Amino acid sequence: MKNIMVLPGDGIGPEIINEAIKILDFLTLRYDLKINYEYGDIGGIAIDKYGIPIKDETIEKCKNSNAVLLGAVGGPKWDTTLPGKPRPEDALLKVRKDLDLFANLRPVKIYKSLISSSTLKEEVLSGVDILVLRELTGGIYFGEKKRSSDEKGEYAYDIEKYYTYEVERIARLGFKTAKIRKGKVTSVDKANILESSRLWREIVNNVHKEYEDIELNHMYVDNTSMQLIRNPKQFDVILTSNMFGDILSDETAMISGSIGLLPSASLREDSLGMYEPIHGSAPDIQGQGKANPIAQILSLAMLLRYSLNLALQADIIEKAVDTVLEKGYRTADIYDDDKKLVSTNDMGNLIVNEIKIICLNN
Ligand code: IPM
Ligand code: MN
Prior knowledge:
Blueprint: E1 2-9, H1 13-31, E2 35-39, H2 44-50, H3 56-63, E3 67-72, H4 88-98, E4 103-109, H5 122-125, E5 129-135, E6 145-150, E7 153-158, H6 164-179, E8 184-189, H7 195-208, E9 215-220, H8 221-230, E10 237-240, H9 242-255, E11 263-267, E12 273-277, H10 294-306, H11 311-326, E13 329-330, E14 340-341, H12 344-360
Parallel strand pairs: 1-2, 1-3, 3-12, 5-10, 8-9, 8-10, 13-14
Antiparallel strand pairs: 4-5, 4-11, 6-7, 11-12
Helix pairs in contact: 1-10, 1-12, 6-7, 8-9, 10-11, 11-12
The structure holds 3-isopropylmalic acid (IPM) and manganese (II) ion.
């Protein structure tokens, strides 16, 4: 029996998780998959209920599961700059760190049927296939941070620190992944300024010696942000730090048309992983049926593929999403005049129906 921890979180999290669970339920029944799932609280909802963004008990359950499916966390209700006050985002960082999920995979795929909803031109986009590989448990997100004051006044700092072993393991995964893709790694840093980036670059070069068949180039992060818009086809695997990966992956999301489409997987050395959309909790559209559940549904597909070894079922989900988009169904974020506007719920049902059709023919 495989166990999945489901953490819907805040904002649109619970709505889009519901759509993913519909699909999981259908596939479990259809293929007699031995999958159990259990819900847990994370983020603002956990702060409201227990005063902390995630309970240790929930973390333990995540550690003992085969995979975690997460919605999104955060919202204006819990926004605070007050030191010592719990923040929903702390829970996300805690799960990533406590589960040692150091590798964050953010694939960017172009849907032919959606090219028109991107702000970029078709000729720039067609053929783009990028994997942003973001280091997820180190760097400035987890370095020492402090607020204090001296004779010049109040100050604050956050430290970007990387250990060799942290760079090594993510670089190794980058080269391995490139091997089964287009064979190219672009390592992104700011080595003209940051010492941590100079170490990063040195280690990536060292690890590259084990993978000489893979093409490696280095690019500064500022240039990368420009190149992604100028000519995104030049990229295959973008290997980068926690902070740069966070920023660049929002940019790559826009290449695909909408941030509502992109799933992500956060993995450690074994098959345990956490799967979540790369978008946030979008509290402004919560409860209105406007949220796009596709990123969440594709996160479920990644979960089945990477943590449960169910590639067939993952393929089916991805194919069903393709077909529904090709048929012209759109949630508000990707809507165009000549298309059919549907709600969160409708989109989930349409994808389930498409999955049923695919299964009938299988
Ligand atoms: C992401 C998000 C998170 C991050 C936030 C919500 C903490 O932006 O997963 O990209 O910065 O890592
Ligand atoms: Mn982000």
